[in-house]
Design a protein that fits this description.
Elements (H helix, E strand, L loop, with lengths): L22 E2 L10 E3 L1 E4 L12 E3 L2 E3 L12 E3 L2 E3 L2 E6 L4 E8 L2 E6 L4 E8 L2 E6 L4 E8 L2 E6 L4 E8 L2 E6 L4 E6 L4 E6 L7 E2 L2 H15 L5
Parallel strand pairs: 1-3, 2-4, 3-5, 4-6, 5-7, 6-9, 7-9, 8-10, 9-11, 10-12, 11-13, 12-14, 13-15, 14-16, 15-17, 16-18, 17-19
Pfam family, one: Pentapeptide
InterPro entries: 5peptide_repeat (IPR001646)
Length: 221
């Protein structure tokens, strides 16, 4: 007998574990395209470092400064970043898997064309999170203050944005399945067509009603 198909919005599936048995390492030795595993970097200032193509596997970053650090094409796997700081974060085309980002303090975070799978962003403040054209699978963003969240052109499945305060939410061209924004606040939303496949709550729907009516050309008298 065939199993019944699940109904309703499917939540992210996360099985994150904290990296253990780590070796404390001096981050000054990091170079582009390095492959690093089982290391901890604490209170390191990596401003202006070129770490393009670096792979971090089962690594932990504690209170690390990433101002203008070039991380294009870098990989974070089974890792954890806690209280990282970056007025500008250059991380386009990065890969993030089974990774926790805890309490980030990021200004402009450029994560366009990235691949996020089983990623949890929790707490903190990000002025501009650019995930444009990224693939998001099993991603949870919660309790985070976001000045602007750019999800334009994403392909999202099992994505939840919970209890977040968002200034501008951009969904232009987004393709979504099981994307849930219930419980979050937003002031402005762009790209109404990208709401297809997104789950909202009753209160959010009431706020969206006027712009949705205008979008489809309804006349309300």
């Amino acid at each position: 007998m065939a199993k019944p198909r699940p109904t309703g919005t499917q939540p992210p599936v996360l099985g994150l574990t904290e990296p253990g048995n780590l070796v404390d390492v001096d981050a000054t030795g990091l170079r582009p395209s390095d492959e690093r595993e089982g290391e901890r970097y604490s209170d390191a200032d990596l401003s202006d470092y070129d770490l393009s193509g670096v792979s971090f596997i089962q690594c932990a970053f504690d209170a690390v400064t990433l101002t203008s650090t070039r991380l294009r094409g870098a990989r974070f796997v089974d890792s954890q970043l806690t209280a990282s700081f970056a007025p500008t974060l250059s991380a386009g085309r990065t890969t993030w898997r089974d990774t926790l980002v805890q309490s980030p303090r990021w200004g402009s975070a450029e994560l366009f064309d990235a691949d996020l799978n089983a990623v949890h962003i929790r707490g903190g403040k990000i002025d501009y999170l650019n995930l444009r054209s990224s693939r998001l699978t099993n991603v949870l963003i919660e309790d985070t203050q976001l000045g602007e969240l750019d999800l334009g052109g994403i392909r999202g499945d099992r994505v939840a944005i919970r209890n977040c305060r968002i200034g501008t939410l951009d969904l232009t061209g987004a393709r979504s399945v099981n994307v849930d924004i219930r419980g979050s606040e937003f002031s402005t939303i762009n790209g109404l067509e990208g709401l297809r496949g997104v789950t909202v709550d009753d209160y959010q729907l009431s706020l969206l009603a006027p712009v949705l009516a205008a979008y489809v050309g309804l006349v309300v008298e």
